[in-house]
UniProtKB/TrEMBL annotation:
Region forming the signal peptide: none
The Retrotransposon hot spot protein N-terminal domain, residue ranges: 8-111
Protein name: Retrotransposon hot spot (RHS) protein, putative
Biological source species: Trypanosoma cruzi (strain CL Brener)
Source organism superkingdom: Eukaryota
Amino acid sequence: MFILEGLYESVYNARWHYVMEVSDDTEMGMKVEKGKPKQSWTYKKVGYTLEKDDAVQQSGEAPPRLMVLTSDKGWPYTLSVLNGCGNDLCVNSEVERAWQIVKGDLTEWFSNFDLTLNPSPMPHVLVGTAGIGKSMAAGSYLLYQLLHYDVEKLQVVVHCFGITMYVFDKNTKTVTKYVGEITSIVVLGGLWQRGVKGYIIYDVTEKGTPPDTGLAPSSGWGMIVVSSPNLDNYDEWETQAKASQIIMNCPDEMDVKAMCAWTKRGLDTDEQAGYWKKVEERMKKFGPIPRHIFDEKSYKDRLAAINGALLAIKLTDVGEYFALRGSKLWYSEDPSHKLVKVVREITKKGVELFLNASISADIGFRIADRLEKKMGAKDLLLLILGSRGALASRALEQLGLRVFMYGELVCALVEELKELRPPERNEAQDSVLKVNHQGHPTRTVGLAGLEGGVTRTAMEYRVLYIPKVENFPLVDGFFFMESPRRTLVGLQMTTAGDHHTIPSTVRQFTECLATYFEGWDELSRDMSWEMIYIKNAFSKKILKWQRCDVVNPNNETDAEKEIVAFWNKEVHQYQFMLTRDFLSKITEMRIQ
């Protein structure tokens, strides 16, 4: 047992800063401010959980991009890891969301007078990709907020790291450190016997070491377990405690940019921008994982590990990468963990679960390339288009586009294409693929992002071009056919019942094409367009022509009018909807 002098006051009185997005002439567009922001993020109820409510934020004062709390003596997490990670705690909207859920459950429990039905607040498991700040950011922020929670209701907050336990006593304003699982259970039991109520934050420090199911007192105590998605870390405890999951998404690009602005706040804006560009390039390679993108050595080590994991991909990995609930993959020490991230999904019943997605667009492309080479065409199509929820994964989109490289699949697929025509167009037109299925693509080429410039190349027919970046405009992939007419075929994998677009998106797409391909202005003359919307049996069917609408009809520009006219006249749309009959047909096919 050790008394840690000054730690309670340091954590309780942590200093606030925040980072705001600003419109200025600098490349960063970020400003660091002292104090607590006047406006934080707003959340709305979605089923049994919460999501950020951007609509409210657009109508009021802008919230910060990032909040930072600094404890001069550190946090329990920084005292428990071998390599210290500093005293600054970065809070984004995902971290705040976790606290809002916990706070809501505490409020509901304390207003419940029939404690025989719910003797303790709702227990939780906080799950997220390794390295995004669950322990340092979310765990420490929960500690801070719980210390500020009404002392009449919660007298103690406990932060555990495996067998090491820090007990924050809100009455005596002290922190006591204990080591040993049995010691921890005895100490907590003694507090419970004295009528003390508290909350436990348990961080799984070693893989496969879940908390003891008897750690938390039987009543009056809340508990949250912080873990990577490895089910060995929490599955038994979650089942016994009937805990609810909180899925924490990775920080987004602007969150990371704000972290850069905070980290380099003492430098001029040009130096900040130079640091941000370096971090941005790393992030494109393997995603927004703070543990690996800010440090040069960690970045290089991670890059080598990812390349090794890509080389180690096996055909048997397919089901593990793209399972709907993504959990099977995380039971093992398989190196493929390094290629995927956890993404929150809320079911129709309003419950959180997680999906696996490729950790970056670049890695998604590389995963798809490796798997496509190891799978038969039939298996590829059945996996991508026959699995419920599969289209939610970007990597599955990447794989799904590749079915257009198999001639026999294309022959069967084009027979199922349904044309979507605008009301004023009466005459039907078959897809160029139906007329000339032999013109399908035979290989893939990945398109890198435009940042930093690209080298223009010659446009090639029968090549499936797939963007290796997130949020590419208009399409998920495309290819060109020369016969029976020169045609750009855009592919869009979607679960939505509508997929309308706007002129600016079409313009961005054509600008990208002009940047990628030599002589695009001349090539694009008299070139027709087709859009194929690919959907599975569990998604909403598209029932009508997908429009290109002007955002503000009262202020339509000539350029917008021209794009809309082109869309209505030159673009032909088709939908492929997977059906049971089609699945049966593919199953019977003999494809090598």
